[in-house]
Amino acid sequence: MSPDPNANLSFSQKFRLLFGKARRFYLIHFRPKYVEAKLSGREGECGRSGACCKLGFVCPFFDETTEVGFCIIHKTRPANCRIFPIDERDIADRNLIAPNQPCGFTVQKSDTLSPTGAAFPELKKEHAPAHSDLRS
Ligand code: SF4
Question: Are strands 62-63 and 43-44 parallel, antiparallel or unpaired?
């Protein structure tokens, strides 16, 4: 098992990572239009660094007994995990944990969002209304 990268973070950085979890929960459940718009501009794929499973603390469902590590509830993991990263703030949070190992995803900045990009396949249709309803 590798050392907890959170041990090297300041209190405010740890708080930021925990706040990020709550923020993503809020966005997914109460700002679906924002999420859908951001995900439509996201590119890349998971680099399997495991960094997003260590935000604030090492998730109890993250198995580090193998070299790469994996989620033992991958098929039923919560939306916060399935949809990560939503935006630039999530990438910045994730980079606190693994600064030398870039995230496999890139996200567009808010002012360069594609207005008609494809919706993220795992985002339920009812959670992905038209971009025209997106509030800033
Ligand atoms: S539930 Fe799975 S994907 Fe989500 S943080 Fe934990 S180990 Fe990672």
Answer: unpaired
**pTM for the full predicted model:** 0.80
Q: Quick: pLDDT tens for 55-101.
A: 999 999 999 998 889 999 999 999 999 999 999 999 999 999 999 99
Query: 62 CB under 6 A from ligand 1?
Result: yes
Decide: 105 and 42 in contact? Cβ < 8 Å.
yes
CA of 77, closest atom in ligand 1:
1
Cα-to-centroid distance, 111 and ligand 1 (Å): 30
Query: Is the CB of residue 81 below 6 angstroms from any atom belonging to ligand 1?
Result: yes
Task: Return the beta strands (E) in 65-124 as ranges.
Answer: 70-71, 105-106
Greater confidence, 3 or 113?
A: 3
Helix (H) or strand (E) holding 11: helix 11-30
- Token duo for residue 30: 């109460």
According to DSSP, residue 120 is labeled P
Q: Which atom of ligand 1 is nearest to the CA of 55?
A: 5
Q: Is 113 a residue whose pLDDT tops 80?
A: no
Give me the residues paired with residue 106 across strands.
43
